[in-house]
## 1
Amino acid sequence: MNTAAAIAFQILQSVFVVLAAPLLVGWVNRCRAWLQNRSAPSVLLPYWTLAKLFHKEPVIARGASPLFRTTPYILFGCMWLAAGIVPVLATGLPFAPAADIIALVGVFALARVFSALAAMDIGTSFGGLGARREMMIGFLAEPAMLMTLFTAAFISGSTQLTTIVDTLGHREFALYPSLAFAAVAFLMVLLAENARIPIDNPATHLELTMIHEAMILEYSARHLALIEWAVAIKLFAYMTIGIALFVPWGIAEGGDWHALPLAIGTLVAKLALAGAGLALIETLLAKLRLLLAPEFLSSAFLLAVLGMLTHFLVQG
Amino acid sequence: MEVAIVLGLPLAGALLLALAGHRDWAPELNATMSFATFFASILLTTRVVADGPILAFDEQFFVDPFNVFLVALTAFVGFTTALFSRPYMRIEQEHGRVNVARLRLYHSMYQLFTFTMLLCLLSNNVGAMWVAMEGATLSTVLLVSLYRTPASLEAAWKYFILCSVGIAQALFGTILLYFAAEKVLGPGGSSLLWTHLHEVRAQLEPTVLSLAFVFLLVGFGTKVGLVPLHNWLPDAHAEGPTPISAVLSGLLLNVALYAVVRSKVLVDGALGRDFSGSLMMGFGLLSVVVAAFFLSRQKDIKRMFAYSSIEHMGIMTFAFGMGGPVAAFAGLLHMTVHSLTKSAIFFTVGHAAQKAGTQNMDGIRGLMQVSPTIGWGLVLGSLAILGMPPFGVFTSEFMVLTTAMHEHSWATPFLLIALGIAFAAIFGRVQPMVFGETTAQRLPHPPALIPVFAHLAIVLALGLYIPPYLAAWYRQAAALIG
Amino acid sequence: MSALHAALSPAGGALALAVLWLAIAVACLIPSRNAAFARRFAFPLGAAAGIGVAFVGLQAVWLPAQTLTLPLGLPDLPFHLRVDALAAFFLMLLGSVSAGVSVYAAGYFREEASGRLALIGCQYHVFLASMAFVLLADDAYLFMLAWETMALSSYFLVITDHKQPSIRSAGFLYLLIAHLGAIAVLLCFGVLHGGRGDYSFDALRAAHLQRGWATVAFLLAFFGFGAKAGILPLHAWLPEAHPAAPSPVSALMSGVMIKTAIYGMVRVIFDLIGSVRWEWGLVVLVIGAGTTLFGVLYALMQHDLKRLLAYHSVENIGIILLGLGMGMVFVGFGHGAAGALGLIAALYHTLNHAVFKGLLFLGAGSILHSSGLRNLNDMGGLIHRMPKTAFYFLIGALAISALPPLNGFVSEWLTFQAALQATILQNGIVRSLLPLFAATLALAGALTAMCFVKVYGVAFLGRAREPAHPSPLPHAGDAGGMERYGMAWLAAGCFLLGLFPSSFLLVLNRVASRLTGHGLSEQALSASGWLWLVPTSAEQASYSPLVFLVMIVAVTLLAFFVVRRVYHGRARFADPWDCGYPEQTSRMQDTADAFGQPIRHVFGPLYRMERTLPGPGEATPRYTLKIEDRHWYWLYLPVARAAEYVSSKIALLQQGRISIYLLYSFITLIALLVFVR
Amino acid sequence: MQVPFSTQLVNVLAALLLLIAFAMLSQRRVLTLIKLLAWQGAALAVSTAIVASSTGQTHLYYSALLTALLKVILIPWILHRLIDRLFVRWDIETLINIPTTMLIGIGLVIFAFALATPISQMASTLTRSTLGIALASVLLAFLMMIVRRKAVPQVIGFLAMENGLFFAATSATYGMPLVVELGVALDVLVGTFIFGIFFFHIREQFDSLDIRHMEKLKQD
């Protein structure tokens, strides 16, 4: 495939993800509203929120260091980069070999560290509280995520996402018990990492329970907008990772323009389903007590490791 | 001729100091005589190194590379110790622990002690060797009790009784040796001459020699301080004046070990190496381990280093017991570095005790502050004696251990454990004495620390580089020991 | 002429520079105005020598091994020196890191009193020289000589402030464990020797051991060197000694000295023993995993900054051992390429850790030096007072947290790649074990990130806390010039090693292939240019930190400029939102201990905690928490007690009764006579 | 073969020596101990003289003379003076009671003989069998030093040991060279003097010669 087309694909995919991410959030919220039979807000609400926030004048706490002000951009950049790594629409993109799954997890870690640091920058009790809880979630979720990805990596014998997706996507259908374990673990990680019920509740500012909201309490206006947007991209990225790992069928080859419409179509369908599913989970489950979160995540970690072991014991 | 000088000088010194030992310049005279002896021993050494072993005075005296190196060492340490004892004894006098009369006794006995040791080293007659050894005991016993304190008297009494009894056993051993020899060499003086015995050693009666060696080992081993015959040693070292502790540890033990090794050579001729070797290795190992465990319980600083001497004599005995060129080489080297290091340690310890006004280690603190030289001397000396590179003690221990590892690998774990325990014990005690806040105060006389750092410098040099002639010398001696 | 040629050869050059260090050490002791001498001349010259050593090493990696013999040492065992690829790599490490530290030291010791500075300068350069000789040594005697000299000089540096009892006990513990380790190493050489030839390393290589003895030698080497490296359970000295030393020395000890232990392990296991067995690899892996988790979990509990960093050294040693163990397992099973990958990962992490841990210790030193604080709970908001230090420290923190695109990430990435080679193993159990160790590594990495969020957030960010014991230097500024240059040098190292890994990969591949006879696969080498890092093959795994960095910077800047162009750049400053609480004091911030609370909750059983809760009636309620290492109660104290017991029994030999003493002699005599009969 | 008369005499004296050694072991009074010591010396001197006459080793006459002077006259006299000056005429208590000591002693004698017999077989001298007796008396003296509690008897035990050694030297091996004998004699003499000095020091420090006072230096 010619590189120009591939690069075009790359850019297209990145832009697509960045633009489509808020839509996914809106869709999830809408589904949840339906399930909780509230009158649902528009799917486009997140865009309007972002626009509003960008227009406002930011209020920055006294004693904030430059780190506080640069963090939102770094977060946004990290998520955007992640969106570039994950094969959302097509595999074999030129940027893919620059970073594999481990680097992908590294990007998320980078973002987490910076947001936690920024949270502690002001020196309020809430910032520290949020940062502490976020890192507590992180130190269990991150290895679980890595192990999930390793399971797939062992199956496909590669840590390149595109290679993984190729091998998983073009094999004849077979049941992988290891992948089943991995899928469950991944789901739990996804909930935790995106500040979803049962770990966190994006809808409240209840200080006993809030994690993510406590971290960004000091942010306003454009900074807040960037963070919210980054969060949306993160959710999108996670969902697409999940899709790529577990239901990769229908994704396009890099530079193959004819497969593109089909790829977009299948992707939208999968995402719609996934979003609905997420909303369903969030409706059915109750928020865990904070001190139970480690247990939730360590079970995710164990599941992931189990998946990896079953790969060796079954496919062994 | 040199032999006569080497022996005559200390004897003359003993007489002179017996007359003039109470004068103010007695210490200087003492040092001068010791230096003269040292100089003479250098002459003797050069002579022997140049044109081989010497027999003197119708074979009554015999000098070969083995004993001439000990002679040189003895004379050297005797000299440096005399230098050290100058200010030390003055301070003791001003602290009122000794009076002039006792100083006189001290000085003349010091020379006499040197004489007896040199005699023991040089004499070719096994019987005379025994006599000199007993003489060494007699000349030091009054020095150990110099302070006339109850403790010092007790120590001296134990020293006297135990060593005399031990030496008596050695005499019996000598008689047995003679008994065996005279059947080969016929009656008369020549059958006690070591050189003659050495020539006919293969024909001597094995059973008699085995008995003889047992008696000789127990006898001289008592003076070497082999466990369980060692009990006099810590008391005598702790209670006597520090210069005496220095020479006891640094020299007398060496001389006694020399006597053991000389007899071992004869016995090996008749019995082969295994018999005496296994005995010596057993005693050596026992001494090392037991002494190491004793170390951690000491409160008195000189006592502690006395136990360390036992440990090191054990190492040497083990080395000579193993035999072979490398082990014997290591044993000789260890003799050298141990006597240099240990005497240096005792020098610093003496001044440290004087500064702090006690020998109790809990009372000595923070020497670094009041006198960095003493502090560094003590800490470096202790590290050296503990076998820390780059000091020479490590060199010999390295050779002993590596030889032991492939010849008697069963023994090495004990040795290594003992070394580790000794390290923990001694360094754990020394560190708080040297570092931290101090309790000590200044001294009326500037301490003599040239000896300390001279010794440590030599030990350090030996750790990095053994000059070829010295190595050749050791090799010859090792060859003699076999 | 030949002498000149010898001096120009790597071995000669390294020797000359090491001797130069010794010369500086001696020169420091010359009394005339030695403070100024040490500050202006000795340390900078030492740094220059360090750079020289680094260049010599870099050059020597590509040359065949060179030997040199000095007419010193034992009469029949002169000093053998040898520079092969492995030694060259570690020389590079030593030189480059020590250069930065020396520059820093020139600034750090500026207010030292003359006499003390003379001693420090002397011991410091002896320390450097001894480390160089450890790497150069090619016979057991010289090696032990240099090894113990290294321990000794560093011990004296540790107890520089010997007035404090805690520092003295730390120094003692350090020297004791170091000495015991050295004894084990000596024994190991003895086992390797096998009874023939001398003790030059060539003879040790030549000696053939049967399996049992080889295993004994391996265990002795592993635990002997491990005592210096700080592996479980011999780590106890490390968190005591590293904080006690002056910060540049801590940086050297943590950055370089404990790496010489890794060097020793690799040298003995891969070079001297030769035939590596996979069971050994498993031992290394298990110990390594334990060390990793232990180190990071205890680091999370610390509030003394340097102590925390020391615990992280323990953790990173564990990570290095993980890589090393994987390499040994693969080599043991005969997979050369994978084994090389593991070894490379280990060595790369050795280098990386040297760089960023050195940087972090220097940063901690600057904090201590300018504000007199070492307890995190007394710090806060330092980023405003010392922004430059804060910047360098941030780089170090990101690097150690294994975040791309810095260097810590690269080596952990390589370790993961080594673990992912597990599929090629035949032995099912081992194959399924390796991923578990990878999981440990992942967990440790995440925990490290958490720990350094804590450190950076508590120390540099937030508002200044009113310290429990107020800082001696309240209004201190940023680190001085020399200190900053030192830190900048190492920070640059973090970026260099992070962004151009493939060039270092080639160096390490050379080292590994010289050691094990196998390098990475051809396609890996062909695929990895200056831009791409490819350990096995392009479709299996690849990573390009440079592209990564470019992309992330690009998108971040893009976002920034777009936002700035489209919208206004105005901002208003106000008090932080107080959530309805009228006053928010700086005491309401999380302390370091508070930050560790979730870990205490999750991993509670690992710690030995003593909590004291304030009573209801207390005027100034204080909640204190003391966390201790269980190993003290499991290992160290019992051993001490046992020794005490034995000695107390042996002491019964000497009860002061002369009759008993005579009886001993008597019985000995009789017994020997019986024995003879 | 018919053993020559001189040898028989020597053997008798040897037996006497052993007997005296036993007597010392069992003796409770200091004065008697000293007397016994003198007698032992006398027996030693006589036996030495006999050996000298029977073998015609002239230097043995000197050593016989020396022994007589030193061990029969001089040393006993010194000891007498000492205990007169120090008023130590009391009975001696021992660590173990006398019968046990005797039993151990007998055991020692048997052991010594067993040890010495094979050697004696190969001896070239007339008086070969005496070696065992000499060894026995040495060991008995050793035992005596162990069981006695006072300083003076310990010293006497030491001197008795020297006697045994002398006997071994003269009878078993026609005497050591004269130099050695002189040296040994000198050492013994000086030793006795130093012991004497010690008695006074100990007395003035502990105002008793009981060595139980000298058990301070020990490991705790």
## 2
Amino acid sequence: MRKKSFYVSMVLSAALFFMPFLSIAQEKPIIIGAPLATAFLYGWDAERGIKLAIDEINAAGGVNVGGKKRPFKAEVIDTRDLEPAVPVADALLAMEKLILDKNADFIVGGPVRSEAALAAMDLLRKHKKISILTTGALTPAYGKRIAENGDKYKYCFRNSSHVPVMMGDFMAILNDLQKDHKFNKAYIMVQDVAHARAGGEYMQKALKEKNWETELKIYPTGTTDYSVGLIDSGKKGAQVLFLWMDMPESAALLQQWSNMKLKSLPMGFMNAAEQPGFWKATGGKGEYMIVNLVNGGNAPAKITPWTMKFVEAYKKKWGLEPEGYGTSSSYMAVYQLKDAIERAKTTDPDVVVAALESQDLMGVYGRMRFDKKTHQIIPSWDPAEGAVTGIIQWQAGKRVQVFPPKAAEGKILFPPWMK
Amino acid sequence: MMRKERIDRGVRVRTAGLYAIASWQEILYLVGPPLFLIVGAIILPILLEFAPYWKRVINIVCVYAIIALSFDFLANFVGLVCLGGAFFVGIGGYLSAIFNVYLHFPVYLSIPLATISGAVISTVLLMPALPLRGVYFAIVTLMYPLLATRVIEALNIMGGTNGIIGLDSLPNAYVEHYMVIIVMLIFLYGMRRFVNQDMGLVIRGVKDNDQAVRASGISVTKMKAFAVFVSSFMGCFAGAYIAHMYSWAGISLFALDFSIIPIASVVIGGGGTLLGAVLGSFILVPISELLRNFGTFRIVIYCVILTGFIVFKSEGIMVYAMRKYHQFERWVKV
Amino acid sequence: MSDDTILSVQGISKTFGGLKALMDVSFDIRRGEVYGIIGPNGSGKTTLINCITGFIKPGGGKVIFKGKDITRWAPHKIAHIGISRTFQIMRPYYSLPAYKNLIIPLWSPRAKTVGGWRGGGRHGDRDTVAVDILEEIGFERDSRVPYKLASTLPTGYQKRLELARCMAMRPEIIFCDEVFSGLSMSEIAGMLPLIEKMKEEGITLIMVEHRLRELFRVADRVMALNFGEKIAEGLSSVVIENKKVKEAYLGKEEV
Amino acid sequence: MEIIVYGVINSVILSLMALGFTLVYSIARMPNFAHGALYITTGYLAWLFMNSFMSLPYPVAVVLAIGITAAIGALIYRFVMIRIRGMEISEIIATYAIGLAILEGLRWGGLRGMTFTLPPFIAGSTTILGVSVDYQRLVIVGIGLATFAALYLFTHFNRVGLALRGIAQDERAAMMLGIDSDMTAIISLALGSGLAGLAAILLLPLGNIIVEVGYNVLIFAIAVSVIGGLGSWAGTILASFIIGFAQILTEAFLSSHYQMVVALLAIIITLLIKPSGIFGKQKELEERV
């Protein structure tokens, strides 16, 4: 029995090995597997981005793999990994389903939750599948792990930003505020998850070095009431309210901030404040909130010529603006793959990895290049140099890009009661 | 008035004692079903050679089956309804990760060590809850995994919300399959034997009438603690295994799914039979996999199945099947 | 306290909420006697047993067994040193056959040490011992009765099973909580020799009873409780004539 | 000062979340694990009535939503729970499964993202005792207290209410007096679900209507009722004040991220010291082993 199974598995692995060549001959579609928590913003937005890119590419004839035009095909699977009751193991199983059952050639998108993305790295290594992480996971540990383990995790890429980069952007804004408006007191309220906590602690340290007075509050997921913290911030005379949360109750925080007319400017990373529907949902109470959408192009802006083209195409296909984090990066990931495959002239993962490493592409949110060591997208404040972040402020019901200056469309406004 | 009467089949009566087996049919009657299960479980990975994904699903099925066994034993033989099966899974997984990643023990050592030490730790932690009964025990055990999650999160220990990553995976797919399949079978038949041993009877006595057990000079708390040890032993193995299977341990090992799906399996398979727990997992988990394309709707479907079973067929499939196998029914006039 | 006192109860009290269930109840029990406790419904008889055997923690007072203070001990420890009891509400281990019901007491540490049942080793040894005990207590060995599920036994056998469970412990004292109630006259008649036999074996019996007539046939001494207070103690014939006792019972009948 | 003001607000919020759960348990002896799902259902229905196909005015939408939720509660009892009444564990599993089905069904049916909100009664804020409080929170405290009072009056002076209380105390005796146990259970489930709905209408304007909130509400409801003693109303209210203040105090003096740990530890500790909760009425012998 044993011998037979060994034989069978040999044949099978041989078949798997030759599959890419076989499929070229038949011009089978290249399957892009997208493990996403599709019931959540970061999931469905990524799904739409991927599908839009695939439609565009297929309409233009597909991917040129060594002379043969092959179309892309999306296989989206719901990992549910943002739901608290679902173990990461389930998300990983979903990913294995993509790889083993749906025969995905490449993975784009998630898993969305940081720990799931980290856990998935070993899976990708095992199955030798290239993955471009585009949404959800913000943890710097991802890039660090790739850099530390060299060859082991070379199949993992991430084309969206991560916490330290985002922090640098915020620090730049805060430095300007300090310089122009003499702001020097910040109140930091973050959620108790690794990326938010890291963000909060990093921010506190960085601000202290610049002689800010800071206070850090960490809230467990599911906190419903922030009144005490908010009142405290008012008492301490904070001029900046720095938030980092991806839970729904955080919208309540902003409403309360507005009701209390606290003399502070809220900014940060807040899931609830990303979507265009946020304005209506809070009845305009969220005005002046500065939100980091992680990557440019997740809201209308003129970063590169492609940005508005993407936004328009998205609007045309889905009937609304890109809603938030994960849209533009997922869209770009497909184009990045197309470019890499065309240059590699094969879908063999090892060759495509090399192609991705040497990639230099002008994209929706700036110049797309991967760092060769960490496989993270190289960030910049200049779209001509690297990937640009999308920091917007809610102004009169619109999301207006306010940072970085080279891509900004408006200036930061202050609530009238701060004067 | 008509009444349904159930009568043991002749072959059942003859084979009830070991001495009366007369023919190969009777031997088959007796050993057929377990043989089918054992052989089936062992050749399943080979049968599914051409469906690599479903081979992975088998591992998960077995993991859920083991957790379900642990639940079934506690609930239907000891009378402790533990809604926090995930707690054992989490403890086992984290310990295994600590042994493997921090202390660099090899897989073959970290899994058994995590299983044993996890069982000890779980038992000690659950000790205070043992005097509770019924709903109270159920609710408190439901809170345990939640609390564990929150503590790890708040203290930012053991990798915080990112978890511990980079555990060694098992050497190859066959070790991975057969390890969990064989352990599951050992647990299943071991437990089935155990509950009919003298000590097993004492533990079952605790469920029927704990007062009488104490009046017999036996410490109920000790027996319950031992039962929790046995149960958490199984749960911790499941956790340690799943941690190594995915090279990762994190707070979502304490996730509610690890508590709920096994319970659903037991309800569907038939509580109090142990076999039912395994059967339930082998039915429920693949169904849920088949429904994966429906997204969250699959949860709705299996919740409806679960409610349906609780309400209309609370005995579960296994009890029903056993009755049909051992007895025949007829209508008699009363 | 004389030398042959085996159990001494001193001033046990217990209140539930505001209700005084037991007030300062004291009595001594001599080795080998049959001691009856009588009293109308709600007079605190079962509470008293529960307090002595550790199932309820008494509010005050002491229980001394062979010179050792066992107040507030855990029930299983009290059982371990040789004080056994039956329950008023019979609950055999329903899911087990009758003889398997005895496996549990036979498995206990006391049965292994004091009892000397050679049950320690192989599986099945205890089964034989269990059937022996059941036979002793009146189950017909060759019938199917000892092998029936406990839940299907008739009341008389269930009562016997309760006693058998105590006997398996090889106890020194057995508290019988209303073993006669719910039995027919003939069933009781069958039980009486059993009690005599236990007495001969040197077991001290404390019988809480409602059925006075049957109790008086076996009891050496009797104590009467009313509203948690001891109202009389002494030889059966003396207690039955006691005025308070009569009032307690007759008063109840008038209601 | 803000500790007191927000402590009270937080406590009332918690007790509102738990009241429906407690009511059902106290009368029908049924742990209703679908509580959180009913809570979210009301919020979603109200949103639907106001924003989508009908765009009803706020009061109508709210009343309709609460009414439908109450009906759902009654239907759950009539068609499912009635068959497994008394088997507590089956009740837990069945209600939990129903709740899960409702929640995940809503998610599947489109309740995603964070754009679903209910409007507050009155917007804006004011200052009380030197602490800034928005009106909605004051409304919550007001209606919350009014609900407690109404429930008290209902169960002490109304015929139906008295019947409910009778069942709660001694089911068999009440049945002999001609009170229909199933009918009262249906009423209690409807009432409990309605209370869950009322809480949702009051509390959801403070956040978004999302599925996860349903799980959180269930956990809080269980936590509060278990600490207070399952089925005891006074206990529920007291327990919500304990947890409510404990949370605010943790935030003020310890660190905000221990809030949940404190709440969950409170449950375990309470049960270990007093297994039936602060006001639990279970008998010593039956409960303690």
